[in-house]
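Hi there. Long-time user, first ticket. I'm pasting a complex I've been working with (about 669 residues overall). I'd like to know whether the download I got is complete or cut off, because the file seemed smaller than I expected. Thanks.
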Amino acid sequence: ADIISTVEFNYSGDLLATGDKGGRVVIFQREQENKSRPHSRGEYNVYSTFQSHEPEFDYLKSLEIEEKINKIRWLPQQNAAHFLLSTNDKTIKLWKISERDKRAEGYNLKDEDGRLRDPFRITALRVPILKPMDLMVEASPRRIFANAHTYHINSISVNSDHETYLSADDLRINLWHLEITDRSFNIVDIKPANMEELTEVITAAEFHPHHCNVFVYSSSKGTIRLCDMRSSALCDRHSKFFEEPEDPSSRSFFSEIISSISDVKFSHSGRYMMTRDYLSVKVWDLNMENRPVETYQVHEYLRSKLCSLYENDCIFDKFECCWNGSDSAIMTGSYNNFFRMFDRNTRRDVTLEASRESSKPRAVLKPRKVCTGGKRKKDEISVDSLDFNKKILHTAWHPMENIIAVAATNNLYIFQDKIN
Amino acid sequence: MFVRGLKRKCFDGEEDIEGTLAGIKAIPSYNLQRQSLLDMSLVKLQLCHMLVEPNLCRSVLIANTVRQIQEEMTQDGTWQMINTQSTGQASLDRLVSTDILCRSSREQAEGKHVPGCSTFNKDFEGDQAQDNSETMSTVSSAQAPRNLQSNVWEMENPQENKGNFQKSLDQIFETLENKSPNSVEDLFSEVDNSYYDLDTMLTGMMSNTKMGHCDGLETFSSPTTTASNSNCKSDLNELDHIVEILVES
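Hi, the file is complete. Here it is re-exported in full:
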């Protein structure tokens, strides 16, 4: 199994898509309630697997283009088929996933196994009839949106109009129509005329869940810009600018790096947005630009280790974050296969571990604690014992229920609320 | 001579600078660590050139860090002369043996032979991909146990040091631009040591005791703001040139 690079529930939560470093997409489907197998309710099983992207070679630059799936975004379901967008560094593809549970039998010109019938043998005409067959799930690429990005695509976001979507790379954001593959509109361009002056890149972008003219993008300097597409064709001038003033007492050479935002997500309500930087998660009220309304420390104990984390490149890890369906809780990943959940109302937080050793199936997860001081209590783990290769970068929360998907390197864990 | 507007910073035991090893280690550790961070950053920028395609965000963040360090260094004008020959030698050998940073330019000037460099060159000119990954894994595993704080760099001539910094940055970005195996030789070619004259700024400038702890680079406090001057500007222009080549690749 390959390293999972993205996880995403669809709008109903019945389907869960994962993309991996090898360019594959695996879709899981939730089992229906079944009286004869009561334990299988809520289980996710493999529904479809397909190769979305292949490695490519850019002959002009003599560089390989990785097939790793950076992001998957589902489209809202409009008919029996499911549609999703998957992207690697350069190309976005629209996939149609459809079920086939019937097949036609009784063709006139060919046999059941497909061989052509000898015309002289055909003496009568018959009408083919549909017969049930074993369920087959087919994935087919319906659109390929290519050649629009010079830099690496880091985000895609489907608009609330269900007709357009945006794709963002390090320096530009493009607006696409789902039906049109040979054209896209550039709506943000922060590439300086003189590349010597480049000091900031785009790290994530997302459309507002309700207002189809509004989107945000975050930067490597810890800022978020909200843009309104009605104001101008090229949204280089933001409508709102979100930045928290820096605390001068905690400034170090790593301040900028740890302030770089790795993910931005609107709340389901559309009133708030959440940003993830290296050490914390911040919730912003869209009406207040000068500081976040809530800040949650994910792993503050790493602040004293920033130099080592810079040395081993972990400081550049891009963690994602997600909201629960009611926007009352948020979740993000950390190291050592730990992930953190914060309840916004009670202000309680919990650290859990996604690993086979630490929990058996259907066992309740035990909260974990990282020991920062000198004396380590039993069951605590010290900061120096953390495994920085086991990082949870991608998590997803079911849109309505308390079911979460956690990607731990090449394993996918699905957890749900204890059912009484 | 001192740059106008800059206070001469003194610290206790200036006379002791050639005194005990402990004294030398404790007081200038901030600068050493900063230099280590700078070197590490340069290595990172160099390494990312060898990968499939450099992650632009990471490169920009590292370049910004390099720029920040350089700004602070030029503002402080802090170039410690540390004559800890034995420890400096040891750490330098260890560095060279990991094939990370080839100090051939300076070594050649001093007439020393650097064993690791020629091997590195050969490997690189051979089959790139395989050797690169091996080299890089060597780098990462060698760097991990290295205690930054214990690396007391051998800093002799501050101008030479500065020149090396500038030149090595330029070399890095030349290779980035060219993107060909032959350009690696440029990286290790001889350096003009009198590249940059910082006499007026550096003479007599000492660091103040910023670093209270010896815990490493994490304890950097905010740099003291001093009057900038035209020398700083040209430094920054050099650095801009770096970023240009870096990001255009």
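A couple of notes from our side: The helical segments of chain A are 255-259, 306-311. The interface with chain B takes residues 61-66, 89, 151-152, 170-171, 194-201, 203, 220, 248-249, 251-254, 256-257, 260, 303-307, 310-313, 316 of chain A (CB under 8 Å).
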